[in-house]
Amino acid sequence: MKGNVLVGQSGGPTAVINSSLAGVFKTAMDRGFTKVYGMRYGIQGFLEKQYVDLADYIKNELDLELLKRTPSAFLGTCRFKLPAIHEDRAIYEKIFSLLDEMDIEVFIYIGGNDSMDTIKKLSDYAIITGATQRFIGCPKTIDNDLALTDHTPGYGSAAKYIATSTKEIIRDCLGFSYQKKNVTIIEVMGRNAGWLTGSTALAKTEDCDGPDLIFLPELAFNIDKFVKKTEALLKKKDVVVAVVSEGIKDKDGKYICQYTAGSNTEDAFGHIQMTGTAAYLAQVVNEKLGCKTRSVEFSTLQRSASHLASRVDINEAFMVGGAAIKAADEGISGVMVVIDRLSDDPYQSTTGVYDVHRIANDEKLVPRDWINKEGDYVTDEFISYLKPLIQGDYAPMMVDGLPRHLTMDTKGYKDLYKLFMNQG
């Protein structure tokens, strides 16, 4: 008889992270594992013995479909850095004691770079001590910066939301263009990788010219050159829309947000809080050019807008969750599931696995030849890579005009089937 599965979610959530959780649960049940436990608030919550039996919340196919459409982390997430094994062996002894106590056979962690570091350390400890548990990383990040995978679940949906919102912002700007010249600066998430920022180029369609300028963090940002480019554009048109990554830096490596509004507060992994880049640049443009300016920061909407999730993204998120269980069931440990692209037209993908040591603490950046020579836009190669990932949609399950989500409180619903049937 097979043992139990323990699954957790870590780091910043996405619109499809729960689809991976659904994939883990369904595949584990289909493959005969006894129970699937969910860590509340990742490894940090698990250390405090916070976990749930997912069967208490996912009781039928409707619950499973609802979970796939639910944004954020159903189980709760954390940003917790496990110390090196030699620095604090006691914490590993506690974790593995709990795993033994719960008869855990498989440990799945859904997350990004920092989460893969956790999988690496736990699998290393298991090898050192001869523990039998298997540890599998399940990719998740809107930043699309995990190495060795073609792309990450969460990226396609975030890109779809960002591109759509950029089109709508441009329409809004054009509606006011008769009053005076104006400049709008959009700030997009992305500390060191510009995959999300570049997705705004998708807004360039038959009915929209798209943004005028796009600046990714892969290249040094020069404020004076930015102002000059904006001034030159304003001589040709009334409305200028520029997009910047939150993580753009000057030639000395200083984040632009640190010039005024950025915070030097660091999380457990040494990442500073990033905000205010667009607001600062809008202020600079206003002072130097005297035109009307405004800044737009999508903030957490980029990772939580499940109403605009990509069908491709939701399906692939579910697929990698299932693949994580399959790999563990086949005796594999210390790996991360990856997505391999088979073709673009028609778009097809499959899953594989790679040693997590080749992935943890690494970052996949936008290739230099996918950014134009001037460094202020992305190329057609970038667009061709991204377009297949935003296709299709999953209609939200609507109740009283609003999308319904699966939450810990949903356990109290007597009959979800009746609830939806009553909506007609």
Which helices and strands occur, and which strands form pairs?
Blueprint: E1 4-9, H1 17-30, E2 36-39, H2 42-46, E3 51-53, H3 61-68, H4 89-101, E4 104-111, H5 113-129, E5 134-139, H6 155-175, E6 182-188, H7 195-198, E7 213-215, H8 223-234, E8 239-245, H9 277-289, E9 292-297, H10 301-304, H11 311-329, E10 335-344, E11 347-355, H12 380-386, E12 398-399, E13 402-403, H13 416-421
Parallel strand pairs: 1-2, 1-4, 4-5, 5-10, 6-8, 6-9, 7-8
Antiparallel strand pairs: 2-3, 10-11, 12-13
Could you explain how this protein is built, in words?
- The protein is of the alpha/beta class and 424 residues long.
- The chain has two domains: 4-153 and 306-363 and 391-412, Rossmann fold, CATH 3.40.50; 156-304, Phosphofructokinase domain (Rossmann fold, 3-Layer(aba) Sandwich), CATH 3.40.50.460.
- The chain is 34% helix and 17% strand.
- The protein has 13 helices and 13 strands.
- It has helices spanning 17-30, 42-46, 61-68, 89-101, 113-129, 155-175, 195-198, 223-234, 277-289, 301-304, 311-329, 380-386, 416-421, and strands spanning 4-9, 36-39, 51-53, 104-111, 134-139, 182-188, 213-215, 239-245, 292-297, 335-344, 347-355, 398-399, 402-403.
- The strands form three sheets. A seven-stranded mixed beta sheet has the order 3-2-1-4-5-10-11, sandwiched between helices.
- A hairpin with a 2-residue loop joins strand 10 (335-344) and strand 11 (347-355).
- Helix 1 (17-30) packs antiparallel against helix 3 and helix 8 packs across helix 9 (277-289).
- The longest helix is centred in the middle third of the chain and has 21 residues, at 155-175.
- The two termini are 44 Å apart.
- The relative contact order is 0.17.
- The mean pLDDT is 93.
